[in-house]
Amino acid sequence: MATSEALLQVLTGAFPHSCHFNPCFCNANGLLSVKSTIRGTRKRSFVRQQVLNSSRTTQSGSKVYRVVGKRDALKGKTCVDKLDSVRCKCEPAKRASGIAAGEENKPRLKAELKQPTSVPLPKKDIFKGVSQPENENRGSSSNGKPTTAGKIKDKPKSVGESSIEDEAWNLLRESVVYYCNNPIGTIAANDPSSTSILNYDQVFIRDFIPSAIAFLLKGEFDIVKNFLLHTLQLQSWEKTMDCHSPGQGLMPASFKVRTVPLEGDDIATEDVLDPDFGEAAIGRVAPVDSGLWWIILLRAYGKCTGDRSVQERVDVQTGIKMILKLCLADGFDMFPTLLVTDGSCMIDRRMGIHGHPLEIQALFYSALLGAREMLAPEDASADLIRALTNRLVALSFHIREYYWIDMRKLNEIYRYKTEEYSYEAVNKFNIYPDQIPSWLVEFMPCKGGYLIGNLQPAHMDFRFFSLGNLWSIISSLATVDQSHGILDLIEAKWDELVADMPFKICYPALEGQEWKIITGSDPKNTPWSYHNGGSWPTLLWQLTVACIKMNRPEMALNAVKVAEKRISNDKWPEYYDTKRGRFVGKQSRLFQTWSIAGYLVAKLLLADPSAAKMLVNEEDSELATAFSCMISANPRRKRRGRKKHSFIV
Description:
Layout: H1 2-14, E1 31-39, E2 44-52, E3 56-57, E4 63-64, E5 67-69, E6 99-100, E7 118-119, E8 148-149, H2 159-174, E9 176-179, E10 182-186, E11 203-204, H3 205-217, H4 222-235, E12 254-261, E13 269-276, H5 288-305, H6 309-312, H7 314-327, H8 358-374, H9 382-403, E14 404-406, H10 407-414, H11 438-443, E15 449-451, E16 454-456, E17 459-461, E18 464-465, H12 466-474, H13 480-492, H14 494-497, E19 506-507, H15 512-519, H16 540-549, H17 553-564, E20 576-577, E21 583-584, H18 593-607, H19 621-632, H20 635-638
Parallel strand pairs: 1-6, 7-8
Antiparallel strand pairs: 1-2, 2-5, 3-4, 9-10, 11-12, 12-13, 14-15, 16-17, 18-19, 20-21
Helix pairs in contact: 2-18, 3-5, 3-18, 5-8, 7-8, 8-9, 8-12, 9-19, 12-13, 12-16, 16-17, 16-18, 17-18
């Protein structure tokens, strides 16, 4: 018992706000128990936290990884159609016994959450980047619920506009998931009309990003911190499919907080974290983007709060390194881009993006930059930082030089010679001019351009993928001229990419025989629906960040106005169908959380553009210099010059 109390002192001192664990503080059985007494008004219950290093298999055959809590049955009060959360609130060691909880257990998914009391936070302090210890407690009240801090001032709003935002905030708060009585994320959709839940009641890493940004902008930091630390714990747990385990740094695609009966006890229940690393996903594809989004959010959290203590934690530093080692591992590929399978990112179904999709490369570049900022300067990290920097230089050159296409480059490809065997080949990837699709000739404006969707030997995917292009602007993977060119194209092709509802996830849609071959006749990805040319309101926030960075916020404002005409009346759909986005998607979920959060983030950033700094990566001068040197040494560029250079091979 003395040993347990000593461990409790260490753990509760290190993690006062949520239930975390350190694998080093486990007994011989890999089990750590923490007991405390909680007094309610009419009841007394005992809470026990257990941390298991191994997994258990449920009757359904799925593995459940858990931090569990034990409690008595809730007396005198029931929650209809709601899951009960487990009270697992850690107290400091000196108060671990005999302290009143103050209130009964809360349902995990709140149907209604009252607006918290506001704690003013000077706007000028948000992005200073200095350590602010008081932020550790800012954003949480005494009962563990998030509080609002740092209200963003806005211009006077019309009644309709204000009501839409109020509705969006209410819906976002209703989607919050609680674990150990602390907010940990938001479910993907909270559609009461849906009869088939599937996995929309889970917390997805990528889906939570706009929700996290919205909460950060409102000064509600605890939910984001809890999310970052709990998903970090999931990273190191065992994940196996058909006797094969992927890399240790893999982050889950999603997780679910379950309340299940405790084994051997008919009354008590336990709380379990049930992550999905792709074992249960459609197509069984590992989520490559989850770890990249996690690093991006970790950086945003530090910049917004000024609290660097989270990123400096040993377990967080280890988590960053594990993700980087997984991404930077040597392989057979000759390119600096990440090689992935179809369906490993936001487009999580078969859509012909296997290879080196732009979306993954843009997130990869942004995550590498963020990791370089956050990694502690120590001898053990020197080799990793060196490899990271080298990859950044090669990746930026590769994308800027070979993925960029405008009218001039298109005409150059049209005149390509093929079958060039030479170190100085212009057509390095042996692209055949006949690959140029007929729609592209009409789509490409005289002013502007974009980064193509994919590049492989003898194959260029000329489709316009929105997320990859927008995040290339945000992360500075695209040059300043290219970034303006992308926005010029969006402006010129507004009717195609925005139309009646922003924003097309890709353009154009696959149709006819091409759709049958590439998607396998996917009934959900029919032409101009879902990932095949559907319109996704959640992309509003990324469009807004890109426009603010390039000092063109009026474009984002116009897109928000288009969305406001319908999105609330349409009950916040996941996506829209048809070329102009006129119909709510055939299989679209209503009250989709990231549609709600994407709109809110766009509104908050337009009200305070300086807040976008936490997401933006400015171009590094060292990388820019290296890129210029590589451009000057490029054989394709040299052929345009007057001087001829000889090389010794």
